[in-house]
Design brief:
The structure is a single chain. By secondary structure, this protein is an all-alpha fold. Among the domains are: 1-35; 51-135, Tetratricopeptide repeat domain (Serine Threonine Protein Phosphatase 5, Tetratricopeptide repeat), CATH 1.25.40. Helices cover 77% and strands 0% of the residues. It is built from 14 helices and no strands. It has helices at 2-49, 53-66, 71-83, 87-98, 105-117, 121-129, 138-150, 154-166, 172-185, 188-201, 206-218, 231-247, 251-264, 270-280. α9 (172-185) runs antiparallel to α10 (188-201). The longest helix has 48 residues, at 2-49. The radius of gyration is 30 Å and the shape is elongated. The chain starts with a helix and ends with a helix.
């Protein structure tokens, strides 16, 4: 009897230990899975921000092959293709995302962005028209403004640009786009104002500085604006101003500005030298 009780007790202990071991293994497995998810999330973020764009494309392409149903990986592929400037492939990737379970209005906006980058303006407009009007984001309105610009619907473009500016804490880029829109319409005064505001928001935005000079040159104002610029930027802006003067027919002024650009640049300014030689040659 005592032997029977002892055996039963040992079996019970063994079963308890076995159950504890199983639970321990399950806990370890869950912990490892959690760690893997965290590691993968961090790696995905790295690939989307600091990795070489084409390396990121390869990474997400492999990941989507292994897990074709995961929309987050398909989004990563779409974003990486846009970063790599592989726009035709990006359109295909984002089109797939919008048809997957869990797709959101943001995905449709990203799809429209890829379409615009690929030059598919009509399809981009159709895609944006399908986004609910309640989805009010900076990117959505910036793209709406660009589409309106392409359609030469100036009032709509201005309205969308204004809304977009109010939806971001970093409006320099959209202000520059809005200014360029005004520049193409011939509204040089408003364009100059918007480029100036863009530069105040981001003093490193050379595109806005160059566009500001173009707006001034179109008004035959051939003096550089008072804005932050280094020596190389000053030389490049003088070159832009010189070409604007030549375009307006002010050849002598253009030559003078080219000479100033060449003298200002800390290295040999080949582009300006070629422009001056061409003018001197008649």
């Amino acid at each position: 009897m005592r032997h029977s009780i002892l055996v039963s007790t040992c079996l019970a202990c063994a079963m308890t230990l076995s159950a504890c071991a199983d639970k321990g293994e399950e806990a370890v497995e869950r912990a490892l899975q959690d760690v893997n998810v965290i590691d993968e999330t961090n790696l995905n973020d790295v690939m989307l921000t600091v990795a070489d764009p084409n390396e990121a494309v390869d990474y997400f392409a492999r990941a989507t092959e292994s897990s074709p149903g995961r929309i987050d990986l398909q989004r990563g592929l779409g974003k990486s293709l846009v970063r790599a400037k592989r726009h035709t492939e990006a359109v295909s990737a984002w089109s797939k995302v919008t048809r997957m379970d869990g797709a959101t209005p943001d995905d449709s906006v990203d799809y429209a962005d890829a379409l615009i980058r690929n030059g598919d303006w009509d399809d981009a407009e159709k895609t944006l028209d399908q986004v609910p009007p309640t989805h009010e984001t900076f990117k959505r309105y910036r793209l709406e403004a660009m589409v309106a610009d392409a359609n030469r619907e100036w009032k709509r473009a201005d309205s969308f640009y204004e809304i977009a500016v109010g939806l971001t804490t970093r409006p320099a880029g959209v202000m520059n786009n809005w200014g360029y829109s005004k520049l193409t319409r011939g509204d040089y005064t408003d364009a100059e104002r918007l480029f100036g505001e863009a530069i105040r928001q981001d003093q490193s935005l050379f595109t806005a500085k160059n566009n500001l000079v173009l707006a001034r040159g179109a008004q035959r104002n051939y003096t550089l604006p008072v804005i932050p610029m280094d020596q190389i930027e000053r030389a490049q802006l003088l070159h832009t101003l010189a070409l604007s003067a030549v375009k307006q027919g002010d050849i002598t002024t253009g030559k003078g500005l080219l000479r100033e650009a060449i003298g200002t640049h800390p290295q040999h300014f080949e582009e300006a030298v070629r422009s001056l030689r061409a003018l001197d040659a008649g």
